[in-house]
Each structure stands twice: as C-alpha cells, then as structure tokens.
Amino acid sequence: MAVQASAQQQAALLDLQQHDTALLQLAHRRSSLPQIAQVQDLETQLGSAQLRLVAIKTEISDISLAQAKADNDVQQVAQRAQRDAQRLDSGAVSSPKDLEALQHEIVSLKKRQSELEDVELEIMEQLEQARGAQAEIEAQVAETTALLEHATQSRDDEFADIDTLSAIEVAARAQVALTIDAELLALYDKIRVDLGGVGAALLHRGACQGCHIALDATEVDRIRNLATENVVRCEECRRILVRTAESGL
Ligand SMILES: [Zn+2]
User: Fold this and answer.
1) Which residues have C-beta under 5 Å from ligand 1, the single-atom ion?
2) Distance 199 CA to ligand 1 centre (A)
3) How far is the CA of 129 from the centre of ligand 1 (A)?
4) Which of 13, 21, 157, 188 is 20 to 30 A removed from 140 (C-alpha atoms)?
5) What is the Cα–Cα distance from 53 to 123, expressed in whole angstroms?
C-alpha cells in the first residue's frame, strides 16, 4: 500500500529538501574550493624546491672538499719549492749536477703550483656559482612557504565558514525531520540518496520540479482525484511529488 501522510507533512518534505539541497551545495563548495588545488600545487612546488636545496647543499659540500684538497695540494707544492729554494740559497748543494737537478725541480714545482692554482680558481668559481644557486633556491623555498601558508589559511577559513553554515543547516534539518513520520522520512531519504540529492519535489503547474517534466493530462487528472493523504510519486523520476496550492490542480 502507498505511503500516507498529511498534506502538512508532505509540505514539510519540501522544507527538508531545501536544507538537504543547501547541505549538498555546501559540501560541493567545500570540496571544490580553489584553495584546495592551490595548496596541493604549492606543496608540490615546495617539495621540489626542498629536494633541489638538498641537492645543491650536497654539491656545495662536495666542492668544498675538493677545494680543501686543492688548497692542500698547492700548499704542499709551494712548501717543497720553498725548501728547494732555501737549499739552493744556502750553498749546501755544490755539485753542478745536483744544482742543475735542484733548479730543474724548482722550475717544475713552480709550473705544477701554477697548474694547481688554476684548478683552485676553477673550484672557487664552481663554489661561487653553487652558492648563488643555493641562495636562489632558498628564496624560492621561502616564497613558496609563505604562499603555502597563505593559501592554507585561506582554505581553512573557507572550511570554517562552510562548516558553520553546514552545522546551522543540519540543526534546522533535524528540527524539520522531527515533524515528519518515520515511514515518509525513510522513503524520502532513500529516494534522495538514490537520485543524487533530491527526494521530494513540488508539483508546480503540472510539472515535476525534480525532473522538470510535465505530467500528462491523464496523470494530472488521476492525482487531482487522489485524497491529499496519498503520497504521490513522479512517473518519470520516482521522486515524491508534493501537492500544494501552486500545483495547478
Ligand atoms: Zn519527476
């Protein structure tokens, strides 16, 4: 047997539907906030910048090690050349053959030192470049962090506003639901869940406001002759059709 309910209870379904529609819109607004995508995007950017920062710091650490080694190489060659020069100056070496060998060694050490100093300079340039890159990435990290904080705050503010509005709707819906019999409420809720959010619709000027399809004349006639307590379902969409003074019957 069809569900029976007073005209007042059936009309209350439209009130309930308004709250449910509002809740659905709020949920949609909450899940499609542009700030959600912004936060995700900025988190990705920040993650990538942080990885680049780790990479450049590793690179700087490697270059610094190479620099220390190059400095040490230059120093050792320079010290050896200095010792040779001192031996030469001291007059301790007297054999022409030894003197020649010593002079020869000093010349090659100077040459070697010059080569090592070039390496040292090259490393210093690399280090300078890498430190410049580090400063750039650090600026990016700082900027992205600030943007992310701002977007997150903005998103959370929107969430809070929407949650406040939703809580008001939920409370209002509960008040209305209290006035509706369990059987009618259960039917409404089932249809609403099955049909994407709309369980009850006004029959307005002979058309269902749920699916916006006009009822044919025979069906309008049939509904017109039904007792007001009979809960009517739309033939097209199966939603509960609520009859009021506006229904055009
Ligand atoms: Zn319909």
Assistant:
1) 208, 210-211, 234, 236-237
2) 10
3) 70
4) 157
5) 20
